[in-house]
Amino acid sequence: MISPESARSPGHATCPDDASPSVGASLSFITAWRRQTARRLFGNPELVLAAWGGAWLLGFGACYLASSPRSALAVPGWLAYLVLGVSCATAGVVSAVETVRPGRGVVGPSRQVTTLYWWSWLLATGGLCLLMLGLGRAGLSPALLSLAWPGLAVLVSGVLYAVGGALWQDRLYYALGAWTVAVGAASTFAGAPGNLAVLALAGGGGLLVMAVVMVARRTNRWAEA
Amino acid sequence: MGGGVSTKAAPAVIPRLDPIIHAQPRLRVVVALATLGERDQIAFPRLQEVVGMTAGNLSTHLRKLEEAAYVKVEKTYRRRTPVTYISLTRAGRRALEDYTAALQTLLTEAPSLTREEDGS
Q: Is A141 in CB contact (< 8 Å) with chain B?
């Protein structure tokens, strides 16, 4: 049984093995340890959002600067596509590492849901590439393709974020999905190359803002626990 | 450890702290398992990595938790390799909830509390 003295003395979470820690120490230990283990077992979704937010902001932003006649910064087309490719590849690697590595050694329903959910992203990306190839072969003009593919890519991402929000009952994540769907669809109304600016700022910026909000929410949640 | 703190005005009761969970290494194991979903299991080496214990230490603490029916240890085969999976039982999850609630009660109401054994 815990001593009344120790019950009144909050201390540090680190206690020698098998010793009876104080009440305050035990509570702060539980809070800190929950946070640590959750990060180890589930990874950092905020990091994935930030990586994709940065990729869209940089990639679509560079493409806009390369194709806009009003751009103050002259960016060669090859460089813009290189920036888009490298930033998206980096974000893809961050997503894979943050999804696969933390979940190793864990089996059960929630792991299955996570695995299938991330396979959906690969399926959607592959399907979208095939769709664009098909539309190109069918004679869709490069001007329309450049308007359709980035908008569709962002829209599909939004749908998947919303599905993620529904699966994990996370309204914030669902709201991010709804916002991203709206941005992807609305970008086409800006015409080319304005659509790229919309996707970079509202799409990429939206993901970055959400990453910050999620970090703040997690910090508050653990502080309240 | 012995005498309780009592007040005439508010004879509240010091909640019992579960001695199985109160030991920090076992608390570490139980909290780690509680972050998983209800029907999820974790392989022994992965749990060992997460909680940062030696295999012997972890086995000892798991045995105590298993005796209290707080964890379930399942030995099986995965691709012909023996593997041990550990999960938190409902009783274990409940015990952690009760333990946390008891700690909170102690922290907020400690000065006005008296011991359960005192019969108040």
A: no
> Residue B103 and residue A26: Cβ atoms within 8 Å?
yes
- CA A197 vs CA A47, A67, A75, B5: distances in Å: 23, 11, 14, 67
Digit-by-digit pLDDT tens for chain B (120 residues) are 334 444 445 555 667 788 898 888 999 999 999 999 889 999 999 999 999 999 999 999 999 999 999 999 999 998 888 999 999 999 999 999 999 998 888 888 765 554 444 433
Is residue A185 within 8 Å of residue A171, measured between CB atoms? no
The vertex-A86 CA angle with A89 and A187, nearest 5°, equals 85
For A216, the domain range is 42-224
CB contact under 8 A, A106 and B14: no
Name chain B contacts of A34, Cβ cutoff 8 Å.
31, 34-35
B11 in contact with A, Cβ within 8 Å? no
Within-domain flag for A57: yes
Cβ atoms of A117 and A164 within 8 Å: the answer is yes
Query: Is A24 a member of any domain?
Result: no
Q: Please state the domain count of chain A.
A: 1
For residue A34, being part of any structural domain is answered with no
